[in-house]
Amino acid sequence: MKFLHTADWHLGVKTNGRDRLAEQKKALEEIISISNYEGIDCVIIAGDIFNTASPSADAEELFFDTIEKLSDGGDRFVLVLAGNHDDPTRIEAGLPLASKHNIALVGDLKALNEKSFVKGGLVEVVETGKGYVKLQKGLETAVIAYLPYPSESRISEKCDDGLSYNEKIKVWAEMGAGAFSSDSVNIFVSHLFLVGSKTRSGEVKVGDSLAVPASVLPKANYVALGHLHTPQSPAKNVYYSGAITSLTVGQSGFGVNVFVSENGKIENVKTIKLQNIAKYESVTVSSLSEAEERLLDYDDSDIIELIVRQSEPLSSSALKALKKKFACISSVALKRETDEQDDQEFSRGRKLLSDTELFKNFYKSVRGYDASEELISMFNSVKGEEDETD
Questions:
Q1: What mean pLDDT is predicted for residues 58-87?
Q2: DSSP characters over 191-252
């Protein structure tokens, strides 16, 4: 049996007000093509389908259209798991219709209705239970145990209050994993932080909220995780497939994991990178003329946060012309050249600053230059204060 593991689609996300749905649609079309080309039997989507619990109609339409195409008329099994950005109830709402296409929408551990899935397809659902589904293709059997995003509030409702969070995770995970057997390939799917995993800012510490050690996960031939957007394998047989589009500045390495099961073993785990993904970068220049030169390296579909470091304010007409010429510009920020003393003053905590200092800093951050003495005096007059600039 051949599997594809993906996660963290975040459909409907916007960056600086820019809708990313067209870009996400291209990535999903590529995943469909990979599934067809590779002859995938089962697609696992490990959470964060949407960016919010109440996605737009367009985002939902893209989701349902994609999973229908992935199911390939019911010949391919598709498992969709709710992540922390998803509403579990909303994810499960379409299950009665989705199951007729061999698609499982999972927001809880309750058993799926085995009889509602497609019969006679290349891959059949032959058994279901609390937290797991068993698949059959010819003589090959696969058991997929699943654990939707285990928030502290939800998991506390299901487990003994005397247990720690990690112990509760272990209890929940074992519910489905109890169906694992020696004559099947055993796969565990969840959406969580694993201690030792890497984020773009470094390691997730043991003390971080909702970070769990690998020891709480059931022993499986392959553990398919979502939640972290950087593809990685933090422990043996444990994989994050990563996000499918750039969600933060400088993010890279977008792809899906493909692996094969044979005789109860997993072989040939490989990452297939997605092509034509828009760049999301921060570009710092010393002038708008330099910006024009640098931005020639980017396509209109790319997302650029432009930072201009200069002492003069930015002309609104020049900015408007630049944005019209380069559609990739997502935002523009002016970083005024200051001496070390100014930098130290700006770095002081808000609670230590007077109202006048807060106004001066705010005005400078917006305009890019200092407020005049007259304007500061007017501000203090409105506030009913004495002039503090002497």
A1: 95
A2: E-EETT-EETTEEPPTTSTTEE-GGGSPP-SEEEEES-SS-EEEETTEEE---SS--STT--
Please provide the average confidence, as pLDDT, over all residues in the chain: 86
User: What's the pLDDT tens digit per position in 28-50?
Assistant: 999 999 999 999 999 999 999 99
Rounded mean pLDDT, 276-303: 90
pLDDT band at 384 (very low <50, low <70, confident <90, very high): low
Residues 6+ apart with CB under 8 A from 31: 4, 6, 66, 70, 244, 256, 274
- Token pair for 32: 């469909």
Using the Cα atoms of residue 20, residue 22, residue 25 and residue 30 in order, give the sign of their dihedral: negative
Contact criterion met (CB below 8 Å) for 225 and 240: yes
Q: Partners of 44 in the beta sheet?
A: 5, 79
CB-based burial label for 16 (10 Å; 0-12, 13-18, 19+)? exposed
User: How many whole angstroms separate alpha carbon 110 and alpha carbon 112?
Assistant: 7
At 258 the three-state DSSP class reads strand
How far is 237 from 269, CA to CA, in rounded Å?
Answer: 10
pLDDT tens digit string along 160-178? Answer: 667 888 888 888 899 999 9
Amino acid at 106: V
CB 136 within 8 A of CB 124: yes
Tell me the HSE value of 92 on the side-chain side, using a 13 A CA sphere.
12
End-to-end CA distance of the chain: 78
